[in-house]
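Each record in this resource describes a single protein on a pair of labelled lines. With that in mind, the following record should read easily:

===
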Amino acid sequence: MPRRLVVPDPARCLGCYTCLAACALAHKEEGVTPVPRLFLTPLPQGSVPLPCRHCDEAPCARVCPVGAIEPQAQAVVLNEKKCVGCGICALACPIGCIEIQVGRQMSPSAVGLATSIPLPAPAGEQDEKKVRKVAVKCDLCYFRPDGPACIRACPTKALVLLDAGDVHLLAVERRKAHFGAAAVDVQRIYP
């Protein structure tokens, strides 16, 4: 089944950070690291959110030493419970959409639960012992029946959820607009 992805429209983006806030809140409610899974990227004409492209070959999943990143039917999903925070996936990501963040430490009994449970710090130890490094990446809010929180929250509708077929049609239209008749020749050579 083709993967889906969130595609931003730079002409509509205000740079208001509403999508980032919605993303962080949705993941906080899910019980995982409460940080955005997309990044606001500056462009000459303004800014645009940059989410994961859920690559077909998913280099991040191929290099993960513990199998914490798994290509699923419509998204490439990272399991924070398995992640050891090594950062190899962030290095492998071709567009830089994986970040290493500070996540809450899981107790051994919490493995398999949907929420993170902070471990109590031994007497005299710093609060840093309660946290651990974890990779974060867009998961298309697979746990939300109404889809990605960023799309629902965007006030200008600058984000759209597309499947692989939609992406192909969009690419064809953009090639035609940019190259005109030459785009048709490219289509025959590289379908």
Observations:
- The helical segments are 18-30, 59-63, 88-92, 149-153, 164-179, 182-189.
- Strands lie at 4-8, 39-43, 46-50, 69-71, 76-78, 99-104, 131-136, 159-163.
- Residues 121 and 130 are 6 Å apart (CA to CA).
